[in-house]
Amino acid sequence: YRKHEWDKHGTCAATLQVLNSQKKYFGKALELYQHIGLNSCLLKAGIKPGSSYYQMTAIKEALTKFYGVTPKIQCLPPEEGEKAQTIGQIEFCFTKELQLRNCTALKGESDPMQADLKLGTEELSVCSDTLPTYYPSEVQ
């Protein structure tokens, strides 16, 4: 898994001095993860992991209000017989200076790899704004 992340993203990030080794890259990723404190932000908005279903719009709003940028949220579609989608990944985007920026793709900037992302065997896709949304406490 780590090798995949490094080959896919790290080798590109390595053009920056602060990220030019695997140790620096993963260290910085952990630092940014802790700095972002996603769970505590969502808890402040009353969104608790593993407890109930939420509106995707409420989750997006809470994140955008708290961070001032739009993250990219991907979901696992409802399983057969289920009505709710499950959040599979919340992705924050950064500038080269490691400042948060909106995750909406910049003009002329496309990432064809994004479509190939899989969690287990299931496809992650753009979350629906209308389906009830489950925010899992543990990512499998």
Task: Tell me what the structure shows.
Pfam families: Ribonuclease_T2. The structure is a single chain. By secondary structure, this protein is of the alpha+beta class. It folds into two domains: 1-36, no CATH class; 38-134, Ribonuclease T2-like (Ribonuclease Rh, Chain A, Alpha-Beta Complex), CATH 3.90.730. It is built from four helices and nine strands. The protein has helices at 2-13, 22-36, 38-44, 56-67; strands at residues 53-55, 72-76, 85-91, 93-94, 100-101, 118-119, 122-123, 125-126, 132-134. It has a five-stranded mixed beta sheet with strand order 1-9-3-2-8. It has a two-stranded antiparallel ribbon with strand order 4-5. The longest helix is centred in the N-terminal third of the chain and has 15 residues, at 22-36. It starts with a helix and ends in a 6-residue tail after the last strand. Mean pLDDT is 82; it is low at 110-119.
Helix and strand run: HHHEHEEEEEEEE
The first-level CATH class of the largest domain is given as: Alpha Beta
Q: What name goes with the CATH superfamily of the largest domain?
A: Ribonuclease T2-like
**If helices are DSSP runs of H or I spanning 4 or more residues, what is the number of helices?**
4
The chain-level structural class is alpha+beta
Q: Helix fraction?
A: 25-40%
Read across the widest sheet, the strand sequence of neighbours is 1-9-3-2-8
